[in-house]
Design goal:
Number of helices of chain A: 1
Strand order of the largest sheet of chain B: 3-7-1-9-12-2-13
Low-confidence stretches of chain A: 1-6
Number of helices of chain B: 11
Mean pLDDT of chain A: 88
Distance between the termini of chain B: 30 Å
Distance between the termini of chain A: 17 Å
Strand content of chain B: 15-25%
Number of strands of chain A: 4
Radius of gyration of chain A: 15 Å
Shape of chain A: globular
Helix content of chain A: under 10%
Mean pLDDT of chain B: 94
Strand content of chain A: 35-45%
Oligomer: heterodimer
Order of helices and strands of chain A: EEEEH
């Protein structure tokens, strides 16, 4: 609401590694050398936004230009996070807006 | 200033607690702690996996800085010689003690739970921990299995006890010693349950008749879930009872009835844990230390109970990353305690009482990586400085921020955060 100051909105960051795009036997607990993708989550009371990006285990670098998948859940209307609307939002506008 | 710290960390506990609004669970002792505490309802782990989460919150660094995403490296060798929260308290005059599962045992804590850096004496591990994955679960045919769902007759267990029971006994023994030697202490107690196998005293099943147990509200794999986001719950598939069901990989699903049995045993394991916490807090009263000991209660990450067709942790879903987090600070979250007054009398979950509500509730989104600066501030120590962008070469700094600013200094009910202008 424009008549409200924008409170400092705390954000929590989580992450999870994956060896591949498709579930496989070591998807739950990939060893460092087998990690190829990292899922970075940013969450506030309003939403959870996750990007699964290419990850290089040799230099620990994540490449946010190489996005394998995305998730976006709006907590007020979807508290159980069942309806991923990441692909419903045109590229980047939402990300820019929430940032 | 100079208060003791009792730090309780629970393995794989999601906020399935009365004080978090769960209507089914019986957790009167943890609810009683909450009634004297500030409770954070939006607290999250940095990664939903034991070792990375624990090394992260114990060093105050994120996984991209500890560079631990699995179980197989020790941050002091692999990433940087980061000071830990217990080490910091030890360097500030505290006796620091570890009981049970605080660091994840093995490579990630140098096979020593990071002793002697973090702890004043060698950490205690229950002798029966080694039987955790043995065939100790009695099947319908009377034979023993290594099951996921594993209510047991404790008298039949190796050593006639269970790891968490031993941990509580050791922690109480240490509290009695601390009372005598009058040194301020940082005592960390790590409970194993409700981590799998769901092995707990069978009497706790009586609290959760199977007919009262439902499926998860959303027990299907969401159609727009990217396949990379899904965790195929491989570890529970290797348990004898799950393996016998022969469910397909990776999406299953498990039979409805067995899903309800897993949920029933998770709840039963939580009530078993609640009893252990109740005995520990009752002992804190008994040694007369409740009035100058802060209590922190949290978990390393959550656990999916069938939501999104998933089980266990290993994902970025809230059910896998959200944790209980509460702080009891005498004179801050509650008015000062008169000496000798009981704050935490043991409450038997079988005589369940309802109605305990958190003293203060904060909906602010907070992170476990903030534990280190928060406890430093609460203890009156210098708060570690914020880390620079790259901090591999910095021994003492934190990538979290103290969340004491969300407490209410007067100890009165924490005001609901005002939306809008201050």
């Amino acid at each position: 609401d424009t008549d409200k100051c924008f409170n400092e909105e705390p954000v929590a960051f989580s992450q999870y590694p994956r060896p591949a795009d498709i579930p496989q036997w070591n998807s739950d607990k990939p060893r460092l050398k087998d990690i190829r993708i990292m899922g970075y989550s940013m969450r506030t009371v309003d939403y959870r936004y996750t990007l699964w990006v290419q990850f290089n285990p040799n230099n620990f670098s994540a490449n946010f230009e190489d996005i394998h998948a995305g998730e976006l859940y709006m907590m007020e209307t979807d508290p159980n996070q069942d309806h991923n609307i990441y692909n419903n939002t045109s590229d980047g506008w939402f990300f820019k807006k929430i940032l | 200033d100079g208060m003791n710290i009792l730090f309780i960390v629970v393995d794989d506990l999601r906020p399935v607690l009365g004080c978090y609004g769960d209507k089914l669970v019986k957790s009167p002792n943890i609810d009683q702690l909450a009634s004297q505490s500030v409770v954070f309802s939006n607290a999250y782990a940095q990664q939903a996996l034991c070792a990375p989460s624990r090394v992260s919150f114990l060093t105050g660094r994120r996984p991209d800085t500890t560079r631990l995403y699995d179980f197989y490296s020790y941050w002091r060798v692999h990433a940087g010689n980061y000071s830990t929260m217990p080490q910091y308290f030890k360097e500030n005059g505290y006796v620091t003690l570890s009981v049970g599962k605080v660091f994840h045992p093995g490579v990630s804590s140098n096979y020593t739970d990071d002793y002697p850096y973090s702890w004043s004496i060698p950490p205690f591990h229950p002798s029966t921990e080694k039987y955790e994955n043995h065939k100790t679960c009695r099947g319908k045919d009377g034979r023993l299995y290594a099951n996921l769902v594993c209510p047991v007759d404790v008298t039949e267990m190796p050593g006639g006890t269970l790891p968490d029971i031993q941990s509580t006994e050791e922690a109480i023994r240490l509290l009695n010693i601390m009372k005598t030697n009058k040194q301020k202490f940082f005592l960390a107690v790590g409970y194993h349950k409700p981590h799998v196998p769901l092995r707990y005293p069978q009497e706790f099943l009586k609290l959760y008749p199977l007919e009262n147990i439902t499926l998860a509200p959303d027990p299907w794999v969401p159609d727009k879930l990217p396949s990379v986001a899904y965790n195929p719950w491989t570890d529970i598939r290797q348990r004898d009872d799950v393996e016998a069901l022969n469910v397909s990989f990776p999406y299953g699903p498990l039979p409805d009835d067995f899903q309800r049995q897993i949920r029933q045993s998770y709840y039963a394991a939580v009530s078993y844990l609640d009893v252990q916490v109740g005995l520990l807090l009752n002992a804190l009263d008994n040694v007369g230390l409740s009035n100058n000991t802060m209590v922190v209660f949290t978990a390393d990450h959550g656990w999916s109970l069938g939501e999104h067709g998933e089980w266990a942790k290993y994902s970025n879903f809230d059910v896998a990353t959200r944790v209980p987090l509460m702080f009891y600070v005498p004179g801050m979250t509650t008015s000062s305690v008169t000496h000798g007054m009981r704050i935490f009398p043991f409450l038997d979950p079988f005589d369940h009482i309802v109605g305990l509500v958190p003293q203060g509730q904060s909906k602010k989104v907070v992170e476990l990586v903030s534990l280190f600066p928060t406890l430093a501030e609460l203890a009156g120590l210098q708060v570690p400085p914020a880390c620079p962008e790259t901090s591999f070469h910095v021994a003492l700094c934190t990538e979290g921020t103290s969340i004491v600013r969300y407490f209410n200094a007067s100890g009165a009910k924490v005001e609901e955060e005002e939306e809008g202008c201050d």
